[in-house]
Amino acid sequence: MSQRILVLGASGYIGQHLVQALSEQGYPVLAAARHVDRLQKLNLPGVSCHPLDLNQPQGLSALLAQVDTIYYLVHGMGEGGDFIAHERRVAVNVRDALRVTPVRQLIFLSSLQAPEAEQSDHLRARQITADILRESAVPVTELRAGIIIGAGSAAFEVMRDMVYNLPILTPPRWVRSRTTPVALENLLYYLVQLLHHPASAHRVLEAAGPEILSYQQQFTRFMAVSGKHRLLIPIPFPTRWISVWFLNVITSVPPTIARALIQGLKHDLIADDRTLRALIPQTLLSFDEAVRRTLKEEEQLANSSDWGYDAQAFARWRPEYGYYPKQAGCTVSTHASAAALWQVVNQIGGKEGYFFGNILWRIRGAMDLLVGHRLAKGRPDRANLRTGDTVDSWKVIIVEPQKQLTLLFGMKAPGLGRLSFTLSDKGDRRELDVRALVASSRHARAVLLAADDPGASVYLSRYGATHCPAGRTNHRQIGSMCGILSSFSLHHEENHGKMRTKFFSGTVG
Predict the structure, then answer these.
(1) Same-domain check for residues 342 and 283
(2) In this predicted structure, which of 8-12, 142-146, 318-322, 503-507 has the lowest mean pLDDT?
(3) Domain enclosing residue 185, as ranges
(4) Are both 281 and 389 inside the same structural domain?
């Protein structure tokens, strides 16, 4: 009988690859994460997607009752702040659920460990998580890995962005630390094959590639493979001096994740993979071959469901654009119906223009005319937009009625941008997420961040603090998108006990 599998953290880059690999081998998979929309669009055979927030794991026990094996791929580096407390809380919730509804085994993807006195917060959080999970009655296989060479790996993307976007590399002294980078392809093979080697007790295994390399050697060999030749001059300043602003400019990787990872690079992290290789033999890819395959894969990043498989988006994609687009947005909750919300969203570009700040859009259009870029004007004369429609300079690339409308940005800009409206039905209420995303080079990120001051947020200051729920949006970051992507505003107002959602000039009941 085929094992039934639950993947926790299925929306991360490892999770998405693992779910696809398990699906290809015919395993029934329950894919759980806070956001599973992207996985759902893949329509993978044998995969069911389940929204799940492990901070409030009420639905976890029901999922556990259906499976034999859990993959635990959850981490909290993207949470910022005290992510150790976040990881501890989530691990405790899973441990407690397993005590009530045990499964056959749990496979936890962890990180290589430095001596306890020298651990960074990231490494310490991984160790705490493993210790908590082992307190359940379920045998835990902790698979430790260091640098992973693959599309979406934060460590790889930081290296890639630095090489592609900087003429001179001046990393801190951790560049001389050594590790055993492993190809994502090899790591996924280990993860899948562990299903055939269940443990009866807790165990720790370490995964590695075939070479021990310093980070300086990895940079040098990456440059040789990519053809991007750069000066590399290590400088002796501590990693704690690396600011979030600097990381925001240099790399597309979210700065909280990038900084947490970099803090863990100051020590040698060398895996002993003899036990794992004896258990699961395979041919390991060299560092150079892993980089070559990853760069080839990343050429297809814009040929994806995120960009509606749109030919224009694919043609405009550039290798120097980061894997992770910069984004800003706002989510609001309302009792308005999905049909009413969808009707208003589809009014974009009509007589209401862009609902707010239309003068700014006219100025932005004039800027394009000054550089010889003539813009299309108007929109189709019908209520609902369709894929392929143009709305002024925008192109509609995704239409899922009453669920999602995504437009590709067509004005001159140093990157590739899209604007998405996503509707979610929450039973007695609806949520509308309005999100601008820009994939850009380091130079474009510098422009955006240089504009990240109070003066740059004029466009959205009217609604930033008032109209978006607290803690759900970075108003200054959205403001810095002004002139590159439009952002929309929703205003909540009570009217005789009835919640209404208002786009400044258009109202739905």
Answers:
(1) no
(2) 503-507
(3) 75-298
(4) no
CA distance 346 to 354: 11
Phi, psi dihedral angles at 396 (to 5 degrees): -75, 120
Say if 277 falls within a structural domain: yes
Least Cα distance to 320 among 437, 228, 194 occurs for: 228
Give backbone dihedrals phi and psi of 432, rounded to 5 degrees, phi first.
-120, 120
Q: H or E element: which one contains 415?
A: strand 415-425
The H-or-E segment that residue 343 falls in is helix 338-345
- Check which CATH number belongs to the domain holding 288 and give it: 3.40.50.720
Regarding whether 291 and 360 lie in a shared domain, the answer is no
Give Cα 122 to chain centroid, integer Å: 18
Question: Does 165 fall in a domain?
Answer: yes
Q: Where are the strands (E) in 249-358, listed by range?
A: 326-334
In-domain check, residue 35 = no
- Of residues 152 and 248, which shows the higher confidence score? 152
- Predicted confidence band at 120 (pLDDT cuts at 50, 70, 90)? confident
Domain stops at, among 243, 266, 298: 298
Is 248 in the same domain as 315?
A: no
Phi, psi angle pair for 266, to nearest 5°: -85, 0
In this prediction, residue 254 has a pLDDT band, given cuts at 50, 70 and 90, of confident
Nearest to 416 by CA among 444, 445, 440: 440
If asked whether residues 315 and 278 sit together in one domain, one would say no
Q: Region of 77 please: left (phi>0), alpha (psi -120 to 50) or beta.
A: alpha
Question: Percent of the chain, pLDDT > 70?
Answer: 81
Q: How far apart are CA 391 and CA 407, in angstroms?
A: 9
**Are 203 and 225 members of one domain?**
yes
Which amino acid belongs to residue 114?
A
Question: What letter represents residue 377's amino acid?
Answer: K
Total tally of structural domains belonging to the chain: 2
pTM given for the model: 0.82
Q: Do the Cβ atoms of 383 and 369 come closer than 8 Å?
A: no
- Residues 265 and 109: their CA atoms lie apart, in Å, by 18
d(CA 18, CA 10): 8
Pairing of strands 491-495, 498-503: antiparallel
Residue 213 in this model has a pLDDT that exceeds 60: yes
